[in-house]
């Protein structure tokens, strides 16, 4: 089955892996959110996919039609990135996941919140349990 992107506002994410099998789709839109804090820039993308009638291996055609009668197959992709504030931004942390839009939404939200928190001052503070040391075997 092929999939195409459909627009949706950036909001609480959802999802697990989606593999396009015999057919492929074309991009139709995306939702995003961008926030900047003292540690850098956080970007969240949400892409909703729709199955199309175009073959995966066919040359890119612009007249692919969305297959409307697929009940329950509404995959979505969520991607979250945190970039530092340098002149050439580096990725501090990232997370991405694709799958049925109702699966793993809470996990995706928690993972994206952790990505957004990357690089903040609290990351540099020692907390109990951050390091573990194992003594060597006695000889």
UniProtKB/TrEMBL annotation:
<dbReference type="GO" id="GO:0005102">
    <property type="term" value="F:signaling receptor binding"/>
</dbReference>
<feature type="compositionally biased region" description="Low complexity">
    <location>
        <begin position="7"/>
        <end position="24"/>
    </location>
</feature>
<keyword id="KW-0221">Differentiation</keyword>
<feature type="region of interest" description="Disordered">
    <location>
        <begin position="1"/>
        <end position="35"/>
    </location>
</feature>
<keyword id="KW-0732">Signal</keyword>
<keyword id="KW-0964">Secreted</keyword>
<protein>
    <recommendedName>
        <fullName>Retinoic acid receptor responder protein 2</fullName>
    </recommendedName>
</protein>
<keyword id="KW-0145">Chemotaxis</keyword>
<dbReference type="GO" id="GO:0006935">
    <property type="term" value="P:chemotaxis"/>
</dbReference>
<dbReference type="InterPro" id="IPR029562">
    <property type="entry name" value="Chemerin"/>
</dbReference>
<keyword id="KW-1015">Disulfide bond</keyword>
<dbReference type="GO" id="GO:0031012">
    <property type="term" value="C:extracellular matrix"/>
</dbReference>
<dbReference type="GO" id="GO:0030154">
    <property type="term" value="P:cell differentiation"/>
</dbReference>
<keyword id="KW-0395">Inflammatory response</keyword>
<dbReference type="GO" id="GO:0045087">
    <property type="term" value="P:innate immune response"/>
</dbReference>
<dbReference type="GO" id="GO:0050994">
    <property type="term" value="P:regulation of lipid catabolic process"/>
</dbReference>
<dbReference type="GO" id="GO:0005615">
    <property type="term" value="C:extracellular space"/>
</dbReference>
<dbReference type="GO" id="GO:0050921">
    <property type="term" value="P:positive regulation of chemotaxis"/>
</dbReference>
<dbReference type="GO" id="GO:0006954">
    <property type="term" value="P:inflammatory response"/>
</dbReference>
<dbReference type="InterPro" id="IPR046350">
    <property type="entry name" value="Cystatin_sf"/>
</dbReference>
